[in-house]
Specification:
With 413 residues, the chain is of the alpha+beta class. It is built from 13 helices and 14 strands. The protein has helices spanning 66-77, 85-98, 104-123, 129-144, 154-163, 165-175, 178-181, 185-195, 260-267, 271-293, 301-343, 347-366, 404-412; strands spanning 3-9, 12-17, 21-27, 30-36, 42-44, 51-57, 60-61, 64-65, 206-212, 221-231, 234-244, 251-257, 379-384, 388-393. Strands 12-1-2-13-14 form a five-stranded antiparallel sheet, with helices on one face.
């Protein structure tokens, strides 16, 4: 896991990313996790225009590091510019789909790995053939409710079943009992076709964030995408969130990946603690009518049931009123004051705020007994319309002063 943040106001956008990357290995049938604090997650998408790109979660696509794909794209982009930020993102993904040299054998292995993970999750707790059929049908029904990945449709689903027929059969035979699969092979194929074409994040997905300015834009914007694997030569990706600074929206704080600490700072309450409070409140409210009415001996059981049913009908409205008061208080006393302060920050202060948010997350992980999945040097960059992409803090695996040719090559490419 990792922590990243984007802080936007009318002057520009500050991007900050830590350097932690978690690597899982299997030794003696056990999973071992190790954290390396050397990963690069923040880059310029163009060397000449005010556009940056960050990534989190998986640092590879199709078995190749994202850093390699970004720098290959950046080299061919050169001085090309687009009017809007989203056009940079669209062009990048279009390049991945049309020009990126993916290895078909490697991408097929990755598809198989994701199928195995999905099949293992599907069979979890299944003890009978009937339970397997029910789990399979439920999985299909759940996926059918999701939107199609852009560019993936019925034709793609047919292509998937044709291209990966052998892989699907091998993975199914590995994960499911033959007796369970008998009579359900068509449903398994349908499940796979939906799994690989619907907007459901697969294992080891990547979050890709493109931020900055298009050539005709004077206020910054941010677009966050989910990207996971390559299927039939096409990259699965879709827009997750879009933010932009406007006259009525003067600032944004966008925490990414492990966002709990940053959200706690800007919302005044831990998201997990809030969820616990809400769950407990719902449980209490639902059980309250019976707890109050049961000791009353003057009422018959039918009367108690009627009063309890009537009370439950009004509970959703009361809970909505309670939740609205809670969110209004949070907005007025925590979120809005912070956003108002951020709206007027200079570029130097904007970068300091972004770095501080990451520092708070690092401290929380350091004093936490769990694996320290946020850490290492923090890379910070500021993007403005006038100055473009400017590094505030950046780590290198080498000393720049003894590699003068590096700067020359960077500017020439």
């Amino acid at each position: 896991m990792t922590t990243e943040v984007a802080v936007l106001n009318k002057f520009g956008v500050a991007l900050a990313a830590d350097s932690a990357v978690t690597v899982e290995t299997y030794v003696n049938s056990r999973t071992q996790r190790k954290v390396h604090n050397t990963a690069n997650k923040l880059f310029t998408l163009s060397k000449f225009e005010p556009v940056g790109i960050m990534l989190y979660n998986s640092v590879t696509l199709g078995g190749v590091p994202w850093e390699t794909w970004i720098k290959l794209y950046r080299k061919q982009l050169h001085r090309t510019k687009f009017d809007r930020l989203e056009q940079y993102a669209n062009d990048f993904f279009n390049w991945l789909n049309t020009a990126a040299p993916f290895d078909p054998d490697q991408t097929e292995r990755i598809v198989g790995s994701n199928l195995i993970s999905a099949f293992v999750a599907l069979r979890d707790g299944v003890k009978t053939k009937a339970a397997f059929a029910a789990a399979l049908n439920k999985g299909i029904a759940t996926l059918q409710k999701e939107k199609d990945v852009p560019g993936f449709d019925e034709a793609t689903r047919s292509q998937i079943l044709s291209t990966y027929r052998t892989v699907i059969n091998e993975c199914a035979n590995l994960c499911f009992k033959a007796s369970y699969m008998a009579g359900h092979k068509r449903q398994i194929s349908d499940y796979v076709a939906l799994l690989l074409t619907k907007q459901k994040r697969l294992e080891n997905y990547s979050g890709i964030v493109v931020a900055g300015f298009g050539d005709s834009e004077v206020l910054p914007a941010l677009r966050e995408y989910v990207v996971d694997i390559v299927v039939c030569g096409k990259v699965r990706f879709w827009l997750s969130e879009a933010k932009e600074i406007t006259a009525s929206n003067a600032s944004e704080v966008v925490p990414l990946a492990d966002d709990e600490v940053i959200r706690t700072l800007i919302e005044g309450i831990s998201p997990r603690f809030e969820q616990t409070i809400l769950t407990s409140a719902i449980s209490l409210i639902v059980s309250l009518p019976e707890k109050i009415l049961n000791p009353v001996t003057e009422l018959t059981q039918a009367q108690k049931q009627k009063y309890s049913t009537d009370a439950r009908k009004s509970l959703p409205q009361h809970f909505r009123e309670f939740y609205k008061k809670m969110t209004d208080h949070r907005s007025e006393n925590y979120t809005s004051p912070i956003r108002q302060a951020i709206a007027s920050l200079s570029l130097s202060d904007l970068s300091a705020v972004a770095e501080t948010f990451l520092g708070a997350s690092q401290i929380q992980k350091r004093v936490n007994p769990d694996l320290e999945t946020v850490g290492g040097p923090v890379d910070v960059a500021v993007i403005s319309k006038g100055d473009g992409f400017v590094w505030v803090k950046r780590k290198h695996y080498f000393e720049e002063r003894i590699n003068p040719s590096f700067r020359q090559r960077y500017l020439e490419q």
